[in-house]
Design brief:
Helix content is 36%, strand content 28%. By secondary structure, the protein is of the alpha+beta class. The chain folds into three domains: 2-90, Rossmann fold, CATH 3.40.50.20; 98-115 and 181-290, D-amino Acid Aminotransferase, Chain A, domain 1, CATH 3.30.470; 119-178, Dna Ligase, domain 1. The strands form four sheets. A five-stranded antiparallel β-sheet has the order 14-13-12-15-16, sandwiched between helices. Strands 2-1-6-7 form a four-stranded parallel β-sheet, with helices on both faces. Strands 8-11-9-10 form a four-stranded antiparallel β-sheet, sandwiched between helices. 35% of the residues are buried.
Length: 291
C-alpha cells in the first residue's frame, strides 16, 4: 500500500499511513515527485525512491503536489499509468483531478441534475466586472485551492475589478460564484462508497463569512437531515469518487452543493462525531481491491 501526499505529509496522510500499518498492511509513503517509472516491451515498472513498488495493490492519493505544468502533467499521466498497470488508486486519478478543479466540479454536478450556485468563469477582467454588476454579491474562488484559502467575498464591483487586475497579473482565471444566503453555517457530509460515515454542521466564527475550520469555524455533532446526507452520496457518485467530503449549504431555494473534496481533511469531524475516518478509508480501499 502507498500513501501519496503533497510536498510534506499532513496529519490526515500520517493517519492513513498509521491505519494501514495497524490493520496489518505493508505501507510506504512519499510524494509523486519521488516516484519513477519505466515503460518497456517487458511491461511497466514503478519505484518510490529506490523501492520497487510495481506490485503495489493500493495507492491512497492525497495530492498531486506543487509543481510546474510539465511536472503535474507527468504526475497525472503516471497515476493513470499506475491504474492501467493494476494499482487501485483511491481516489481515482481523473475524478480526483476534476474534484480539485472548482470549474469542473460545478459542470459535472450540474450535468447530474444536482443543485449548485450560479458559477461564472472567465479570463477577461471586463467580463468579470460586468458579471459583478449582475451578481451584486458574489464570491471569487481560486480554481485550485482548499480550506477556503484565497476565496474573497465582494459586494462592490469596483473593489472586485481592482482585485481582478491583480489576479490577472498572476495569470489566474476568475471563478465567480453568486453568493448564497444562508444561516451562518453549512454541512459537511463525509461519504465512503455508498455510505455517509459522518456528518456535522460547520459554523462560521464571529465576524467571518467562511465556515472552514481552518478559517476559524467549528464543527458540531448535530443530526443532519437524511435528504442532505443523500445529496452528499449523489455528489460523490456524480464525481466518480470512492470517498469525499461534501459541503452543502442551506439556502432559501433548498440545499446547494458548494464543494466536493476528493482529499478532505477529517480532524475536526473525527472530534465532532468520534470516528476513525482513516481506518474506514483503508478498509474500504482494501475491499475495492479485493472485489
Amino acid at each position: 500500500m502507498l500513501v501519496i501526499y503533497g510536498s510534506s505529509p499532513s496529519k490526515n496522510s500520517e493517519e492513513l499511513f498509521d491505519a494501514g500499518i495497524n490493520l496489518g498492511h505493508s505501507v510506504l509513503k512519499g510524494t509523486l515527485g519521488d516516484i519513477s517509472s519505466e515503460v518497456s516491451p517487458e511491461g511497466s515498472k514503478f519505484w518510490l525512491g529506490h523501492h520497487d513498488i510495481t506490485d503495489t495493490d493500493i495507492c491512497l492519493l492525497r495530492s498531486f503536489g506543487p509543481g510546474s505544468t510539465e511536472q503535474l502533467t507527468r504526475r497525472i499521466s503516471m497515476v493513470e499509468h499506475m491504474e492501467m498497470s493494476g494499482i487501485r488508486v483511491v481516489n481515482p486519478c481523473y475524478p480526483f483531478r476534476r474534484a480539485r478543479d472548482k470549474y469542473a466540479t460545478q459542470y459535472i454536478l450540474a450535468k447530474h441534475g444536482l443543485p449548485i450556485p450560479y458559477t461564472y468563469t472567465t479570463e477577461s477582467i471586463a467580463e468579470g466586472y460586468t458579471l459583478a454588476e449582475v451578481y451584486k454579491k458574489f464570491v471569487y474562488k481560486p480554481i485550485l485551492s482548499s480550506m477556503g484559502k484565497g476565496s474573497m467575498l465582494f459586494e462592490d464591483p469596483d473593489l472586485a475589478y481592482n482585485a481582478f487586475k491583480s489576479l490577472n497579473r498572476y495569470d489566474q482565471p476568475l471563478i465567480l460564484q453568486k453568493y448564497v444566503p444562508n444561516p451562518g453555517r453549512d454541512i459537511r457530509v463525509f461519504v465512503i462508497g455508498d455510505q455517509v460515515i459522518g456528518s456535522a454542521y460547520k459554523y462560521r466564527a464571529p465576524g467571518k463569512w467562511k465556515t472552514n475550520v481552518a478559517q476559524g469555524g467549528h464543527m458540531t455533532d448535530e443530526k443532519v437531515p437524511e435528504d442532505i446526507c443523500e445529496l452528499g452520496i449523489k455528489a460523490t457518485k456524480a464525481m466518480g469518487l470512492d470517498y469525499s467530503g461534501v459541503d452543502i449549504i442551506e439556502s432559501p431555494m433548498g440545499p446547494m452543493i458548494l464543494e466536493v473534496n476528493a482529499s478532505p481533511g477529517w480532524q475536526a469531524l473525527n472530534q465532532a462525531v468520534d470516528i476513525k475516518i482513516a481506518d474506514e478509508i483503508v478498509k474500504y480501499a482494501v475491499s475495492l481491491k479485493n472485489g
